[in-house]
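A quick word before the example. In earlier lectures we treated sequence and structure as two separate objects. From today on, think of them as two lines of the same record. Here is Meiotic nuclear division protein 1 homolog written that way.
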Amino acid sequence: MSKKRGLSLEEKREKMLQIFYESQDFFLLKELEKMGPRKGVISQSVKDVVQSLVDDDLVSKDKIGTSVYFWSLPSCAGNQLRNVYRKLDSDLQNSKNRHAQLVEQCQELRKGREESGERAEAVADLKAVEQQHNELKVELEKYRDNDPAAFEAMREAIAVAQASANRWTDNIFTLRQWCSNNFPEAKEQLENLYKEVGLTDDFDYLELVAPIPLKAVAE
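And the structure line, produced from the sequence above:
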């Protein structure tokens, strides 16, 4: 024997609406959860189903005192559906008008662009120019590293990096001197610590690199 198929969400919505329409009364959620199973809607899903009806304006909801009541009348539902229909009909008409405008614009744009030998030749020339433009861009990219402006920017960036590195080097020397002055008894431990973090005897300021002539780079 096959298992009975459960109700779909739309079927559950219809069943819950029947409860409202048949009674035309006001209900608490707990009351609806008890009445739902009589229509085939399990109590655990009643809350979500009713909320979906509220979201679609098919069921009204209001708080009176500390209680929240739900209700829906056939006349109210009919008015709501008519409002939805009018909105959809208006949207459809607007879409039709927009479509007609686009068709008219398309026809206007096609004027003067009819297929002809002259137009085909012009299109071919355009494609050839575009291809040549792309080839020149690729060729130009090869010489980008020798661009004087790019080289100057690189040289300035190197100078800034050197200055920054030496500024931090100066800070490190200052910190080492401060440690030596304030913790003379820990000299050996400090020296071992410096070596562990990479501060060896050859640690020093970075020498300024002599500017590279642009001509040498080009060669």
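Notice the following. Residues 214-219 have pLDDT under 50 and may be disordered. We will return to this example when we discuss secondary structure assignment.
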